[in-house]
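Re: the pair you flagged

First of the two:
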Amino acid sequence: MDGTPGRVSAAAAVAAGQPVLVNSFGQWRDAARDLLAHKVEPHAVQWVTSKDDADLFSNPVACLDDDEEPAGTGQAGEAPHGDAASTVRVSRELMDMLQTAACCRVPNRWAFLYLVLWRWSQGEKDVISAADQDGAKLHSMVKAVHREEHDMHAYIRFRERREDAGPPRFVAWFEPSHDVLPQVARHFASRMGRVSWMIATPDASVMWDGANLHTTGPLMRGPEDIDDAGEALWLTYYRSIFNPARLNADLLHSHIPSRFWKNLPEGAIVPEMVTQAAAGARKVGQTHSVGQRAGTAIPIAASKAQPQRDAPTSLDQCRRCDLWKNATQAVDGAGPKRARIMLVGEQPGDQEDLAGEPFVGPAGKLLDLAMADAELDRRKVYLTNAVKHFKWEPRGKRRLHKTPAQREVEACSYWLERELRLVGPDVIVAMGSTALKAVTGDAHATLKDAMAEPFMHEGRWIVAIYHPSYVLRVPGDDAKAQAFAAMVAGFRQAVALLSAAPPAA
């Protein structure tokens, strides 16, 4: 087709009544040169690809070849083997437009590009004008390709893989409408340094190893071994900036076309937030911010400046303190509706915040061991925390625990008192100083004094022990063993007190 030994040239294929086979812009360019040199008119050529016409990835860099000759200086119609046919000079502007338009997935793209080139060779220079019918289509194809490149730059979301998974470190999945993967891959290669990454599409995938780009065939989906803490942090931030009172669903979809939502991390939570806004969250969104608006200072407390509202009916709606702003979700207690023993911790940790359940992280595993040694069945006790939202501070990519302030403990006492009324425990095990202060309502209570022996409070036994996280972080094996033994002893005391416990208040 292109003069390569063993292959039929494009002009010879047309003369024999055969189609011209192309799979990349480079192959089309060589075939067009040969056809122009032999003055083959567009209507005489049948262009085909080895696959569907919308697939250019049989050559991984189908649209933009690294060895392209400079546009504007090339002779698109130069006759091979010394043919006397006149050459056709192609301007840089036309060559750039043809090369870009070749990435546009439209029917018969190669035939259309040859028609444009043929008209140019016949002296019709206005073929690249937007006022010309063919020129308008060419401009439209170029614009569509540039728009798809922009959308890939904007809506690709790289996700970090587990450290033991090996390269690439980051992966992304995208479904482009046009063949722009090579250009986009070069864009990210120039901006992400030596960090390895991969972009997978239904037609091809490209990987950057830190120095070179490698292309492979299509993938069904991207890798599943994802461990991206940054994505969880992003979703937390996205929830925090979402204002249901100002929601405009039509505008939201006009800014980001719907075909991108399914591959965006926030796309999984937007429908739920839109539904909540329609179900009444707009009212809540307006209320909590009334006293926080910038403007003229008012001589009364912000809480009193807000209109009177009913108490929140669910924990997810709680805005009694500011911890909800940086937490993924509120973590409610878990256990039987009626339990004789209630365990109260300080607050949910990082894993509890993501899972929405109490004591599922490292501290929860140690708690299970201590309860097992004390022969206390976790399924028969009620587990909860004094504070229901995770309070943390950033350290690199990690979220480190930060002790809640007394005002935050007092704000959350509404929910702890509600749990005490509903569960009605006979014995409360306060794990840590914060839990002890929350259970007794005494801001000056100390864990050291309370651990001496159980005591009665409002008709219930109170047993104070170390929090499991304290056992994990206390230095020294001996100190860890002593703290763990103290926890086990406290659980055994709680079990023994059940027989002596008076009716709950």
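Second of the two:
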Amino acid sequence: MRRRSIIGTSLAVVTAMSLAACGGGDGGEGSKTLRVTLVNHVWTENIKKALPEFEKQSGLKVEVTQLGEDQLSDQYNVKLNAGSSDLDVMMYRPLQEGKQFGKNKYLADLSEKAKSDSAFEFGDFQAGPVQATTYDNKIVGLPIITEQEVLYYRKDLLAKSGFTAPPKTLDELKAQAAKVEADNPGVAGFVARTGKAAAVTQFSSFLFSFGGDFVDASGKATVNTEQAKQAYAYYGGLLRDHGPENISTDMSWSEAMAIFTQGKAAFYTEANSLYKNATDPTKSKVVDTVGFAAFPAGPAGSKPYNIPSWALGVNDNSENKDNAWKFIQWAAGKEQALAQQVAGVPGARASVWANPAGTASYPKDLAEANTVSTANGVGHDRPLVVKVAEAREIVGQPIVDAITGKDAASSADAANTAFQKFLDDEAK
């Protein structure tokens, strides 16, 4: 899932960092030259500024290749498939490429290094992101950037309708959305993503909070369980009954966010990583009235996703694994995690979220909502498969059908059959 607000340009930018003079060969065992491949991202810009410190401490020379998302994926596909050893540290998307990389054994097993390093404090990482960077019970990556789903809402509209607090449950969300909508003609009670594939990630929190998931423990499709059918019906019904007039079924985050920030909706469920779109006066008309709350609880409780959007791994064919781990120790360590979060990049370490400095730059209510999300969060927001885009199209169809008033239960049955066939084919 591309976050256009933070990823930046997709044009390839290759940066050779030669910030410390060191000896060594061309990347062989014990080489003093370490090759690190990163994506265009705020995290990357921050880490590049701090690199001289790492190079001075480690005695290593770091060569950074920095690429846009598409170029990064293309390079990995070519080099990893060819068994290339000229990649050492890799920044990758656990939920997009993790299954493929794990299945093909592209990532080195970091379990022993991570768990035996007491100073690194692996136990400080939140459970949800760790779940997504673990494959076949092996730690193959360390999460560096996270996001969670929260509830955006209009404080002024709630107060006008007599509500003293945002909804704590999905039942309350529906009731408050209906009341606020009735009290404010022209304002939708609720808005969210509606596009078949785009909505899947945000729908996932509803699915989990109803007690469902995309697959069960044995890997079988479960998008037609009673819990899943209830979640589809709820999400689609809330948008159909209390969403914007003439609602389209192709909205991604940018279209839904625009409706909210232009003052046309009372509630909006979305990734917390996008919150500045609602608090930036140049983009939003609701700066003074926007509030944030934890994802409302369903029958199974409040279970929003808590995912690592990016992680660091080591190429299993690298001949410089020990030095690659030294970089990860530093870049994913507590000090850098805190510095990144202070700069606005949410991390995966519990200690950073517990540190007042780590949440000082966030609105107070958003920081509180994030704390709930990180504690209860589920480590995925889409099916964990190799062909993620195709899977999202399948499991997203009942969302569209529910919004348009079709039978969500029948649609879920059809989607489950198609999704199971997809899983069977992928397992061959």
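The first helix runs from residue 4 to 7.

-B.
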